[in-house]
């Protein structure tokens, strides 16, 4: 990786750095010459569809249906998808230790005119539902793998009930959700492709956003030989830690909330939850966003409502200094000292009682105004994260009490095992060696590639956590990480999409060009989703932006800087440098 990235500050103890250097000295490094691009995939035509239901056989697999889908019957945004075969089935049907029926349900979509490539679609949240296998990564990146001609698989990761955590009581279901569903589905999917086309995939890719990004990073560490390209969005690769940090954050923000104020529970209309947003209102968040813009907007050469120079902004902006302090009643234009203390502590990163970090800090960015930001900060620490931490990630499973939880004791339960749960929640969810990712070296050596993107204003999985992983990767790969992985921060974007951002982009096609053509992505054009956008409008675009604004997404550590002339709404007038 280039010298400017390696020289940036990284918050690690000197002793840890020395140990890492000692360990690296004993490891094989990547050869000096970059590996040649992998051979390009070659297309093929679907030989049959309906017959697959009766002819395909694979261990522990039942094909339930295989149905032709006409061109235009499935859409990607407002664009019709070409004719394909929809295969539905399940693997490893079983009776769980809790007496419930389990299986890894899936669907595969096999294009009539196939490009020779396979895409594993990692889904988000707690999985639990088979999402349409279009290979699309949410409201932001709008070009899906199926539309590009890939054969695509999607699954429920081994349990049913979208966003339902109670599968976490069943040990094998935990493991399937964590990583084993990908390991089981991948060889079956490749065999199904071979049956359908007369040959297996020439190149295989895996991608997703949020938990889907975590699936991709875990696959790289655990089944790296199976995939050639990894498209990793907003990776919750330390999901148990991030979820515990959410609970800690909720306790900090509860101190600011109006006593007795409540809002409706998002999943239970008969219940209410404390109104954490009353302690940091939308108007107050706009005040903070304006202060960030005042200090940081022009650092990239243009005052345009976007902070491209994220790292420089962290040094330039100080919440306590740069946001007015209330001298009287709160009126939205200032913050009280208590607000500043609590909000600053959340951005600095959750900690255990003795100061040990639970999770990463979060970067300041004007995307703090986003509705998705508010949901993750004010609602999910009460309704979602306690269930996942308590039931899916803890050994043994046990209830979490928001606002009063013993964080130190819960941290221990994330790492515990017992006779029933033989792998800890932290272990089954996170990539092995995520603190020192030397296990990426074999992937890099054989020519596999990874492209990562992350909204700078993601409020649950920190873009700084992703940046720090890239720095650890660079050390582990002896300073050559940019020959294997590229990281694209998305200024203003919230979790996977939304916020005041140019959040519509395609990173899959650049990943393919890198894997199969040797062309490393450096600048990828992203656009705002105005009312006429084919993938649906982003209601949070500022009124003074062009609805068709474009910007280059730049591979870190380069920054999209204004060239000094030309329309600031056009990416052509910015350069990554």
Q: What spatial form do the alpha-carbon principal axes imply?
A: globular
How much of the sequence lies in strands comes to 15-25%
Class per helix and strand makeup: alpha/beta
- Unreliable stretches: 1-32
**What's the β-strand tally?**
19
Give a short account of the largest sheet.
9 strands, mixed
CATH class of the largest domain: Alpha Beta
| Mean pLDDT value | 93
**First CA to last CA: what distance?**
15 Å
- CATH-derived architecture of the largest domain: 3-Layer(aba) Sandwich
Q: How many domains make up the 3D coordinates? A: 2
Outline the structure in words.
This protein starts with a helix and ends with a strand. The chain has helices at residues 3-6, 14-25, 52-55, 171-197, 211-222, 239-254, 282-296, 310-316, 319-322, 337-348, 371-383, 385-393, 407-414, 425-429, 441-446, 463-476, 508-517; strands at residues 44-45, 61-69, 75-76, 79-80, 84-95, 101-111, 113-114, 117-122, 151-155, 203-209, 229-233, 262-264, 272-274, 449-455, 485-490, 523-527, 550-554, 560-562, 574-576. The strands form six sheets. It has a nine-stranded mixed β-sheet with strand order 2-5-6-9-8-10-11-14-15, sandwiched between helices. Strands 1-7 form a two-stranded antiparallel ribbon. The protein has a two-stranded antiparallel ribbon with strand order 3-4. It has two domains: 45-238 and 430-576, 3-Layer(aba) Sandwich (Rossmann fold); 241-427, no CATH class. Strand 5 (84-95) and strand 6 form a beta hairpin. The chain is α/β, with parallel strands linked by helices and 577 residues long.
